[in-house]
Amino acid sequence: MNKPWHSAGFTLAELMLSMVITVIVVTASVTGYLFMLQGERLNSTQAGLDVDVRTAINALNHDLRLSAMDKILFYPAGPGPYSAVSFPMATPNVGGLLNYSTNGTIIWDKTVIYHVWSGQPNQLRVTTFSPRNNNLTDTQRQAQLNSVVTTGDGSATYDAGTASTKVLFNNLVLWNIYPQRAIFDGYSSNTERAVNYTLGSVALAPGSHLFKFSAVGKNALSSSYAIGLDTLVMSPCGVEREAEAQTVSAGSATAGYMAAGGWSGNYRLLSSCTATGQYFTLSMENDRWEETNFRETGAATDCTTVEFDPSLSPKDFVVQLEGPGYAWLASEQTGTPLAESTTNDALRGCAVRVLLRGSQMNNGNIIKLDGSMNYVCFMAATNNTLRISNAYLAEAADFENFTMNAVSNGVPLLFYGASSSYTIPAGSYAWAWCSGAPFQIDKDKSYLVSFLVDNSATHGDAGYWLETMTNTPGCWILPSSLNPDSTMTRAANWSSLGVVETNLLFGVYGLYTTCPTNGTYTSPIVDTHQTAPVYSDINWNAEVPSGASLGIRVRSGNQTDLSDAAAWTNVTALASPGVISPGSGRYVQFQAQLRPDGSTWSSPQLKNVTVRWGGVQRVVDVGGIFSKGPDHGIWELTVDGNPLVKGVTMDLTIYKDMPVMNGGTRRLTSTVSMEIYPRNTGK
Q1: In the chain, domain spans
Q2: pLDDT digits (tens, 9 = 90+) for 26-35
Q3: Is the pTM of this model over 0.85?
């Protein structure tokens, strides 16, 4: 049997070629699989970074919304950007709102610090102090923040025993916190005010600071770049300051009188900037109380009044004694504006007694002023003369009920200070007053003016006013049939003399008084927001006539109503500005004492008062009432060169280096940016 010329199977060459092809195919498959695995791993890592960065920024956003902008502290010092932030947190209630204490303040229950720890790898950490020590000062809290950043946790600072730190994630590349600029657009088609506008927050150390207002642009409709300010709030105590009363240390800004009214102090501070880059600066202390208008809620006047005096230069609100002026008018008491006239000698030979109703009298509150020198104006009829033989002024025996009786016999009134009798021409007036010691008028009391009409013919008619209130007597008359004389007219008790009661008020037109012998203005109570402030001095500006006097007393306490403070009678008044030592209470108050000159016609005029105490480093809200108008521009405020913080913008970038198949690494990054506004709410 013959064999075929070839045998079954592979030659060695074929086998080797087959093996090479197989290796190539397997290698390609494995390589592709490995690339697929690497891609999946990179995608998974990238997704994890994205989740981490969003989780971190959302957590920070949630926490900051439960805080307050004026309580946030930053690291490092300077204008930013910052890499660490400290703020208080409050636990919201079921409604998403914060819980408040009985005195109305938010209950901050923890301090949260987000910070960067530089290491291998870098870390974003959050250190929490719980419970929060609400007694720490802002200076101590800043030191706490600095320590946490330096040590990486809260182990070496205040309240270390309450601190805990956790790592949010590793491999932090970049975390920058930028404060938002404090910019205000002042354009409006009409001149008006933007009320209670908050620009932002800034940390203020004790001492003086420069507030720079710079024109940075303008609305397309605005004709210029003017900057206008009415009031400013920039102290921990939160008391408004008149912008025009501040010291302009650079640039140009002047006080402008606002005749239309409605502006605080009737002035504003205006800088007529005409281009971007123009500015002015105000130099203001960290903390002080400036009282310039004396019209705040809680102020009290006793024989004093707060008036806007346009005769001053500059025009100003002042505290001064009441008067001189009409303390009482017959037309106001009766409600009858114009007098009528008696006829046919209706009052001839009669004695007349008129009741001047004070504030405590039924249907009273007609006497408006206290006074020391008092002038009674008598009025004759339009068609006949009135001759008065004797006139007297006395205090009424009853403050609350209508009475014809006096506390004591009346004090004689002399016409023009010289004569007990006087003939008043028809349609005219005459003045009479006490010639001896001044007769003091107290508007809380009531008074009686008594006068005897001469018994001669054609001298017995007077002007009179009809009392418009029912069951309200105008005056009492002793008729001529009783033959009244000066003794009867002056007598304290008229009840048994056979008087005639009438609702017509005869002869007495008004009571004019000079200033009272003394008066006080008591300021509102101001909260310094310090546990133990160190009060340094008080200053004031006043016009004091020769012979008049002005003194100011200051006291402090820790109760909101100053019930724990010294009584005013135990506080010595300062006769001139200077050092004060009213204690170290959180709440402070002053009282001005005013006395007239010897004539009692001229009063001191108190224009402004400043109480100073040592400020502490604290983050404060800066804002106020700003001017708007058709020529106003857009302006920016910086403090000591640093921007204010109204909100924060946060840029967060994290990374992870992943090995790749060529033996190198590939860096994966994830970045997020967010604007955050603390709102004091969990909503």
Answers
A1: 64-179+647-676, 183-287+617-641, 326-513, 518-613
A2: 555 555 544 4
A3: no
